[in-house]
Amino acid sequence: MTHSDTIIRRGGSVIQHGHLNDRVYVMKLAPAEAPDIIRFADDLARKEGYTKIFVKVPESLVEIFTGDGYVSEATVPFFFSGTESAVFMAKYLDPQRREIRDPTLQATILSEAFGHAGERTPHVLSDGFSLMHAHTGDIKDIAALYSTIFPTYPFPITDPDFIRHAMQDSTRYYVVKKHHIVAAVASCEIDSGNGNAEVTDFATGPLFRGYGFAGLLLRAMETDLKKEGIGLAYTICRALFGPINTVFAGAGYEYGGLLPNNTNICGGMESMNVWYRRL
């Protein structure tokens, strides 16, 4: 079992770091703390030998980070309270970490996804299946499904306790079931303060592929988010996995950018695409 990375709080900021993803990830930056967090992330990365620091930066603070050697990799407009963009910025402590291994394949997958832009598949839920909010009784089955799909993942989603805590916090899980079997799952992590949600953790069991469950789960999450006044949904998904990019392009998401070698997922370090949509 791979050890997952640690999540810590520093002031009003939330930071994940560890050797699984070989990075410092400032998941939530308290704007007033930017200079302190830049110094803290630098010290931590150098001490642990991490090769990347990754931060979601409010657009108004981009220059401070650029001045410290950060580069902009993706942008999501309307991220902060519907008014300010988030710029996903990175600093590389090893230049090799920045090199894209499969640029041609990455471009091909992206262009194929763009070919489906806005054409949501008219999938309806097949007979015998039901789509619903997951509850605590589903936690073990969700963790087991994730274990079969993801040999590695940037967060410990194969651990039932992690899912339980996430549910109690601000993450909502949705499942498609056939009788009592969890066939597919996805989640949305809601940031009510900023009015956005990250739609993530999509997985479909091998026996249940081809039914369009990812698109149906995405639509169900968006419908609920919109009702609750969440104005923006975004995702960070595997750049070299065509089906999930096609799901987002087809659902009307716009491409925000590429995060090179950002995440340890499915057994290795992968580049990730950012997609977003105003709800």
Fill in the keyword field for this structure.
2 domains, 38% strand, alpha+beta, 279 residues, Aminopeptidase, six-stranded mixed β-sheet, 13 strands, globular, 7 helices
Describe this structure in words.
The chain is of the alpha+beta class. It has 2 domains: 6-98, 3-Layer(aba) Sandwich (Aminopeptidase), CATH 3.40.630; 103-278, 3-Layer(aba) Sandwich (Aminopeptidase). The chain has 7 helices and 13 strands. A 7-stranded mixed β-sheet has the order 7-8-9-10-11-13-12, with helices on both faces. A 6-stranded mixed β-sheet has the order 1-2-3-4-6-5. Strand 2 and strand 3 (23-28) form a beta hairpin. Helix 3 runs parallel beside helix 7 (242-250). The longest helix has 15 residues, at 34-48. It is globular. The mean pLDDT is 95.
CATH topology of the largest domain: Aminopeptidase
Instruction: Give the count of helical stretches.
Output: 7
What is the overall silhouette?
Answer: globular
Domain count: the total is 2
The fourth-level CATH homologous superfamily of the largest domain is: Gcn5-related N-acetyltransferase (GNAT)
Q: Which structural category fits the helices and strands?
A: alpha+beta
| % residues in beta strands | 35-45%
- Helix proportion: 25-40%
Spans of 5+ residues with little confidence (pLDDT < 50)? none
Distance between the termini: 38 Å
Largest sheet: 7 strands, mixed
Give the beta-strand count: 13
SSE string: EEEHEHEEHEHHEEEHEHEE
| The CATH C-level class name of the largest domain | Alpha Beta
* Cα radius of gyration in angstroms: 18 Å
Which architecture name of the largest domain does CATH use? Answer: 3-Layer(aba) Sandwich
Lateral arrangement of strands in the main beta sheet: 7-8-9-10-11-13-12
- The average pLDDT score comes to 95
